[in-house]
Design a protein that fits this description.
Blueprint lengths: L1 E4 L1 E5 L2 E7 L8 E2 L9 H8 L1 H4 L1 H7 L5 E8 L5 E3 L3 H6 L8 E5 L7 E6 L5 H9 L7 E5 L5 E4 L5 E3 L4 E7 L5 E4 L15 H7 L19 E6 L4 E7 L3 E4 L7 E14 L2 E6 L3 E4 L5 E14 L1
Length: 300
């Protein structure tokens, strides 16, 4: 079981805490234990498939495939989109970015944008960006604790002020900024927009609902996302539970979002409390979790 030192980034709109990251230049460092002081990238290079799993190592090599964040938005984030793998490669990037949000307690009235609510063309999109009406085309949601939004590459989105979310995403820091409310940075400059790159990346499909509908069940795992890049479930425990990862050829990440408890694996015990993120190597077998704790479980 491995914990990392969070990497906190102050942004124009609030802050991000990168819990587990192998992004070049923003690698998280092991906080304690036998690997203390090593970066995640060093750990992958050293442990290889023992850490991430045989198939994952063959697929991703020495790059850890997931990035885990907590996002605290004091102000609205820019309207943005992320490219898929194919478009990212075309733009000289290593991969695209599919992600998901799990809402923590948010401020009353907090909202976010996710997806298009009406059909628009690429030409209409560019005109709406230019005349400051792009938000008129977006689906907006009130956000409350436990809400889930899955954001595949190509889906326009933006977290609003007052939202606090846990984010699980591909290891990629490519964002195409569509609209930024005419805000200026600390130097008095408008932040760069990526209108053309975004236009190439947007999926213009309109869906009736972009919020993931699910029922939280006590003391059972409930799957809330599944895609080629990660599978995620939420557990809300008030009874001891044993999870068996013996047959899983992947690392597992546990992200505590409420309460506290303890996790025991391979004779080692570790605290699992709100805000903790723990990486379980692919060699992990049975894991016992005790306490009153809600957490996300994600793996590739």
């Amino acid at each position: 079981m491995i914990k990392f030192k969070p990497l906190v980034k102050q942004m124009i709109w609030g802050s991000e805490s990168w819990e587990i990251s192998g992004v070049a230049g923003s690698e998280t460092i092991v906080a304690c234990g036998e690997f203390e002081g090593k970066s995640l990238n060093e750990l992958v290079c050293e442990q290889k498939d023992k850490l991430v799993g045989k198939e994952n190592y063959e697929r991703f090599g020495n790059e850890f495939p997931l990035l885990i964040k907590f996002i605290d938005a004091k102000r609205d984030l820019s309207i943005q989109v992320h490219p898929n793998d194919e478009i990212a490669h075309r733009h000289g990037k290593s991969r695209g970015k599919t992600e998901m949000w799990f809402a923590l307690p948010c401020e009353e009235g907090a909202k976010l944008y996710c997806g298009l609510k009406k059909q628009i063309t690429p030409e209409e999109y560019k005109a709406m960006v230019e005349n400051d009406t792009i938000t008129d085309a977006l689906a907006q949601y009130d956000v409350k604790e436990d809400d889930v939004f899955f954001i595949p590459a190509g889906r326009i989105h933006a977290i609003g002020g007052g939202c606090v979310v846990a984010e699980i995403q591909q290891t990629c820091d490519v964002t195409y900024r569509i609209y930024d409310y005419k805000r200026k940075d600390k130097d008095g400059n408008y932040r760069e927009l990526h209108t053309q790159q975004a236009s190439e990346s947007i999926d213009y499909t309109v869906l009736p609902n972009y919020r993931t509908e699910y029922n939280l069940v006590k003391n059972e795992g409930v799957q809330i996302a599944e895609c080629p890049y990660f599978t995620t479930a939420v557990y809300d425990l008030n009874e001891p539970m044993t999870l068996d990862y013996t047959e899983l050829d992947s690392f597992v990440i546990l992200i505590a979002v409420k309460g506290e408890g303890t996790i025991t694996a391979n004779g080692e015990e570790m605290k699992l409390a709100k805000g903790d993120t723990i990486l379980l190597p692919a060699t992990t077998g049975e894991v016992k979790i005790e306490g009153t704790v809600k957490f996300l479980e994600t793996f590739v």
